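User: I'm preparing a small set of examples for a lab meeting where we compare how different chains pack in three dimensions. I only have the primary sequence for this one, and I'd like the structure in token form so I can line it up with the others. Please keep the answer compact; I'll paste it straight into my notes.
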Amino acid sequence: MPHSGPPPPLILASASPRRRALLEPTGLRFAVRPAGIPEHAMPGEDARSLVERLAEAKARAIAERSQQDVVVLGSDTAVVLDGDILGKPRDPEHAVALLRRLTGRTHRVLTGVALVSERGARADVLSVESRVAMRSAAEEELRAYVATGESLDKAGAYALQGEGRRFIEYVEGSESNVIGLPLDETCALLRELGFSPRLPEALPEAP
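Assistant: Understood. Below is the structure token output for the 207-residue chain.
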């Protein structure tokens, strides 16, 4: 049911500079408050269930700490190959190993989005999937990319919006989803709660 009246304050429950950079061009005013919750998969949990659960958990964690009625946006992204959920690399060697698995293959990227509002009584949750094809690459090229430092805080050890684009052959589906926040679907959820986001004509240069 669409929201009536002015919406409550909006909070982004994420430490990701990429999600902040994606949300800023929508024209919405928002605060950033990272949730700081554990982000581990539960035994037997598939990627879609994981990203939806974590997105809602992040949003709820901030909503429960707030002293006023707010709308909290939580999000979580997973890279999946051969049924394995590939997280952020532990160190440069792990980053090279992750990229070695991904290059020359097509993998899935899933992002969960949750809006928690009405003091936790309402939660709107969805997930979006994209497919990313990466070209083959020599070991030296992978190591040179990892040496830039760009891959070390990214799921799957690459950034579509940065130097990592050199490895991408094509993206099937939402590119903003691969970066960390599917803008079309997120803006649709926000409109249901009374916000008026605008979709940017082009993706920003997210960090």
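A couple of notes for your slides: Residues 158 and 185 are 23 Å apart (CA to CA). The chain has a mean pLDDT of 93.

User: Perfect, thanks.
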